[in-house]
Amino acid sequence: MTQARVAAAGASGAAARTGRRYRTVDVFSERAFGGNPLAVVLDAAGLTAAQMQAIAAEFNYAETTFVLPPADARHTAQVRIFTPRSEVPFAGHPNVGTAFVLARELQATGQAVPDSFAFEEGAGVVPVRLLRQGDEVVGAELEAPRPLTQGAPVARADAAACLSLPEASISARTHAPLVASVGLPFLVAELASRDELARARPDAAAHARVLPPLGVDAIYAYVAAPAGQDGARILHARMFAPLDGIAEDPATGSATAATLALLTDLEPACADDGEWHWRVHQGDEMGRPSLMAGVTSRRAGQQAPVRLGGHCAPVMSGTLLGLGDGGDALRG
User: Fold this and answer.
1) pLDDT of residue 273
2) Can you tell me the distance from the alpha carbon of 201 to that of 238, in angstroms, rounded to the nearest whole number?
3) Residues 159 and 249 grouped into a single domain
4) Is there a smaller number of Cβ atoms within 10 Å at the N or the C end of the chain?
5) pLDDT in tens, 239-280
6) What is the pLDDT of residue 297?
């Protein structure tokens, strides 16, 4: 990775003194107003955690990222990720979207764009590879920062209650509901059909009763579909997190990555060494269709880190006022 300094790319000194630049981007979509919105604050050095939290609440997206100088000069940046209510150690679409934004900032100022970035986050260093069509950066693919961990089975009735569904809607064909994580934990539940997935609604009281004792604040529900003509495995998913101010999320990369790792670990067809490709659809019920492409693999009996990526679409740019000087934001 190049060590050329790319701090505050495209910002004038006057802009840094008068405010902090931000960009918004729709992640896991080729067009604006699809996928999962993300706000990226580029000039975050000097902001307090309380200020970051207030800014994230103001945007009110599922997540907002803040780009800071890295602790280790070999990495691109420190990236802090906030939901409207709390900071999280890792998330999927914030990594993909932040990498896309930073690459576009470099391109806009005529600087060389590397093939990948490395982001320092609470869960560890997250490698993110840029996706290109010709010379244009169109998206990114992250590598999960941690191996799969999974908890004990959770009662089907409890998972169903969180989704406002009858217990019979929860399938145990592949696994019982359980907590899975590759950097951020979720309760993961397989549903019996696409119809059951479409009927799911979050029950805040059930979430408050069931999820905190499990150490999570969200449930990810999915259904497997027949494989595509190219052999890719296909899932349809939804994610609900009302305890974190997110009634429903249109694309949840961290939960998707954990689920793909879980299925690769559990399914007999994935027991041998090899590589498997996945396509995951989310957000259809919200009118924000999202498409995530995943890769899982096993080598010498060990599962490699999950890779997950997709396209991004730029939406807005602006300046946050009244927050002081910006300063250097990142290194590449």
Assistant:
1) 84
2) 10
3) yes
4) N
5) 999 999 999 999 999 999 999 999 999 977 677 788 999 999
6) 95
Q: What is the reported pLDDT for 55?
A: 97
β 36-41/63-68 pair status: parallel
Q: Which ranges of the chain have pLDDT less than 70? A: 1-18, 269, 324-332
The CB-side HSE value for 295 (13 A sphere, CA atoms) comes to 11
Burial grade of 136 (CB within 10 A; 0-12, 13-18, 19 or more) = exposed
Residue 35 lies in a domain: yes
Together in a domain, 156 and 297: yes
**Is 63 among the residues known to form the active site?**
yes
Residues in CB range of 13: below 8 A, 6 or more apart: none
Examine the domain organization and report whether 81 and 134 are in the same domain: yes
Q: Which of 58, 63, 248, 275 is catalytic?
A: 63
What's the pLDDT at 5? 35
Q: Does 43 share its domain with 155? A: no
The angle at the Cα of 303, spanning 299 to 304, to the nearest 5 degrees, equals 80
Give the C-alpha separation, 305 to 300, whole Å.
14
